[in-house]
Amino acid sequence: MSDKLKLAIGSLLLGLVVLALKLLAWALTGSVALLSDALESTVNLATALAALIAIRVAAMPADTNHPFGHHKAEYFSAVLEGVLIIVAALLILREAWAGFWAPRPLDAPLLGLAINAGATALNAAWAFVLVRQGRRLRSPALVADGKHLWADVVTSGGVALGVLLALVTGWWVLDPVMAALVAVNILWSGYSVVMASLSGLMDEAVPEDVQEKIRTVISAQATGAVEAHDLKTRHAGSATFVEFHLVVPGEMSVFDAHEICDRVEREMARAVPDVHTTIHVEPDHKSKDSGVIPVDEG
């Protein structure tokens, strides 16, 4: 079982535990804010399940119908997570609106807050693990799941503050008001997750620091060639795709040109994890004046 899959299963199991704790906190207090927090946690379960499915699909090898692999499946999961975050925020706003017009004292607020705090601590620790390991494993689904959990942590913090203020002041309307304020923050989180995922679905180029690393590898390893140009990059899940044209002297043999390409591909694999490199070899009369990557003479 891969590390990605283990983390996705862990998210699903933790989501069940956290949801149970938050529902218990709401049942004890009757707090609209705590109910809203529990509603947000139900989305955690759905997104964890979506991430699990996406990671399994993305890990499938390339086939006849998907010759470039299934890497983009993770982006669909991340988009779904962002949409569900937004849906959760709208549900919270709905509950907050009802509570604003009919505020009521809370039952056992301190016990409810203590239980909710325990669930929040679990979410915070796991969110840190998911984001850190998701970036290490280059998994958009895990990173999105971690950010979603962190949004839940922010939600819980705001909810706790609202309940405490309501308890101290006796202004029970603060309970739904705080729930509404936190829902706005969750809306922004959902928007951010969706936009980050769409960039991958739209074949956005890799970050500039990675592009510079790619240029450096080409320049250093393509000795014997004249130049490289028309560099294109994109990322899909954990995979990075690189393609460019390599100009070689017209009299160079196919064997020697192929040796240069092999050398570039080997070093590219060391420099960029899970990279797929495609090189189009051209004779020197195809040289260009712009977009050129100069080749070191060695």
Sequence-ordered SSE layout with sheet pairings:
Layout: H1 3-29, H2 32-58, H3 73-101, H4 109-136, H5 140-169, H6 174-201, H7 208-221, E1 227-236, E2 239-248, H8 254-271, E3 275-283, E4 292-294
Summarize this structure briefly.
The chain is an alpha+beta fold and 298 residues long. It is 67% helix and 11% strand.
Describe this structure in words.
This protein is of the alpha+beta class. It has helices at residues 3-29, 32-58, 73-101, 109-136, 140-169, 174-201, 208-221, 254-271, and strands spanning 227-236, 239-248, 275-283, 292-294. The protein has a four-stranded mixed β-sheet with strand order 3-2-1-4. Helix 2 packs antiparallel against helix 3, helix 2 packs antiparallel against helix 5 (140-169) and helix 3 runs parallel beside helix 5 (140-169). The two termini are 44 Å apart.
Strand content: 5-15%
- Tell me the total number of β-strands: 4
What is the overall silhouette?
elongated
CATH topology type of the largest domain: Alpha-lytic protease prodomain-like
**CATH 4th-level superfamily of the largest domain:** Cation efflux protein transmembrane domain
**What is the radius of gyration computed over CA atoms, rounded to a whole number of angstroms?**
26 Å
Protein name: Protein p34
Transmembrane segments: 43-62, 74-93, 108-129, 149-172, 178-198
Main location: membrane
Family: Belongs to the cation diffusion facilitator (CDF) transporter (TC 2.A.4) family.
